[in-house]
Specification:
The structure holds two protein chains of two kinds. By secondary structure, chain A is an all-alpha fold. In chain A, 78% of the residues lie in helices and 0% in strands. In chain A, helix 2 packs across helix 4. By secondary structure, chain B is α/β, with parallel strands linked by helices. Helices cover 58% and strands 19% of the residues of chain B. In chain B, strands 2-8-7-4-5 form a five-stranded mixed beta sheet, with no helix packed on it. A three-stranded mixed beta sheet of chain B has the order 1-3-6, with no helix packed on it. In chain B, strand 7 and strand 8 form a beta hairpin. The termini of chain B are far apart. The chains are: A mainly alpha, B alpha/beta. The interface between A and B is large, with 50 and 41 residues.
């Protein structure tokens, strides 16, 4: 159950979801396209969080199963369409994990010996270094040592907001402001770096 | 979806760090499935978090590498003999360090052993004190038992005395009265008294010849001359006799003498 159900955007979502569910159940093909377009990015993000190596395959499978179900019958609570999609995606991940666990118990030693941890590719490594350099630049630009401490402790050592505020003598508003500005600046710096990289080497 | 709350609580960051409670995480997932703004925010926060962690890791590795390089550079600046000395020192440290650690461990164990011994000794002392206390308790218990036994005997004696007193208070018939005259010569006592099975009073009536005195003293002795009873201030009755009532328990079979101011009265008690 969502804890954010009372806010306005959720009300919009409820209307849109109900409309999509009814139209799909009545055989409207464009509604199916709208559903995929609306939820595709979110479902893929969720799947990448749950099972990065399976995300692309399960992304398609999630929509295939969802559309088949929605064509057969309307949802009892059509406004909960997002929850329905999330449930299918998670169940698929769980099913795949069970399958691979069974396969692992049947695998022989040779198969296990061949299984290696996938190392990040060269491009991924470059992108990761780029993010690290951007963070260094961001840190250098921060006006106070306290703000530097705040970001490092929040992102690197993952300390709680409350304990950080108490420790550094900050109020919640200041904390949020530092994080908000840091995110905006990080985004700007990252985009600048990528633009420069594209200009130097051409698009990836 | 309330983006104010998302911003206020930094929910995307908490979600990425796995710090959101499961119910809230589920709600946020349902939200971002259709919210492009939150997906942008998530991707940015994820990228930033990765950047911070990678930068921190790289910096730590760089610091470690710099230290190693500094040591190597220092070594390279030394002469051959000093390099060998440094190497020997390093080997020595590597060789000795485990020994020192072992020694420290041994000392720690010795301290623990000493503490355990001390505890044991204290326990023994406590046990000894406990034994003394037990002996004292036994002694007190024995004394208590003896006191109880004395008290029982006392009670029995008291009960017996009460019984005798009660018996004495009752009007009695057939009280033996022994009339005694002054003994005028030696020989065996002519007056005899037989003791009954049940205790009771015996009355001795001593006939006193004139001249009379206002009061007399009487002493009862057994055959060995041992004083059995003594009475002062005795006065004559209208029959010019002194009457003495004695409990029969005072007398055992044998000869007795009553001395009254120079006069002697003898009698024999028979069983």
């Amino acid at each position: 159950m969502s804890t954010y159900a009372a806010s306005r955007p959720e009300e919009d979502e409820a209307e849109i979801a109900t409309d999509l569910v009814r139209r799909i159940a009545s055989g409207n093909a464009s509604a199916e396209g709208e559903l995929v377009e609306r939820y595709s990015r979110g479902v893929l993000y969720l799947l990448r969080r749950l099972a990065p190596e399976l995300a692309d395959d399960l992304h398609q499978e999630t929509f295939r199963i969802s559309l088949e179900r929605l064509r057969r019958r309307e949802l009892d609570e059509p406004e909960g369409l997002a929850g329905f999609l999330r449930g299918i995606a998670r169940n698929l991940v769980i099913g795949e994990r069970r399958k691979s666990a069974r396969r692992r118990t049947e695998a022989d030693d040779e198969e296990l010996a061949q299984a290696v941890h996938p190392a990040p590719g060269q491009l991924s490594a470059v992108l990761l270094d780029e993010e690290a350099e951007t963070v260094r630049q961001l840190i250098r630009e921060l006006p106070t040592e306290r703000d530097r401490q705040l970001l490092l402790r929040f992102y690197v050592t993952e300390e709680d907001k409350e304990s950080l505020c108490t420790d550094l003598g900050l109020d919640s508003l200041h904390f949020n402001r530092v994080l908000f500005r840091a995110r905006q600046r990080f985004k700007e710096l990252l985009l600048e770096r990528r633009k420069k990289a594209v200009m130097r080497h051409g698009p990836h | 979806m309330d983006h104010t709350e998302i911003e206020e609580r930094q929910i995307p960051e908490l979600y990425l760090m796995g710090k959101l409670p499961p119910e809230e995480a589920a709600g946020f997932e349902e939200h971002y499935l259709h919210c492009q703004e939150c997906l942008d925010r998530l991707e940015l926060a994820e990228s930033m978090e990765r950047g911070f962690k990678r930068a921190a890791g790289q910096d730590a590795a760089r610091v470690a590498a710099t230290r190693q390089i500094a040591v190597l550079a220092w070594l390279s600046r030394l002469g051959r003999s000093r390099q060998m000395a440094a190497l020997a020192m390093a080997v020595l440290v590597v060789a000795i360090l485990p020994g020192l650690l072992g020694l420290r461990e041994v000392r720690e164990r010795e301290r623990e052993l000493a503490a355990a011994r001390s505890d044991l000794e204290q326990e023994r002392q406590r046990s000894a004190v406990g034994s003394r206390t037990e002996a004292e308790a036994q002694r007190l218990q024995a004394e208590l038992e003896a006191s109880r036994s004395d008290l029982d005997r006392e009670r029995q004696a008291r009960a017996s005395a009460d019984e005798q007193l009660e018996e004495a208070r009752k009007p009695r018939g057939n009280v033996p009265i022994l009339f005694l005259d002054t003994e005028r010569g030696g020989g065996e006592p002519t007056h005899r008294l037989s003791l009954r099975d049940t205790p009771g009073l015996i009355v001795l009536a001593l006939v006193i010849d004139p001249p009379h005195r206002p009061s007399y003293r009487a002493v009862l002795r057994d055959a060995k001359g041992k004083e059995v009873w003594r009475g002062d201030g005795l006065q004559l009755n209208e029959m010019e006799a002194l009457s003495l009532s004695l409990p029969s328990t005072l007398l055992a079979p044998g000869d007795y003498t009553v001395e009254v101011d120079g006069r002697r009265f003898t009698f024999r008690v028979l069983k």
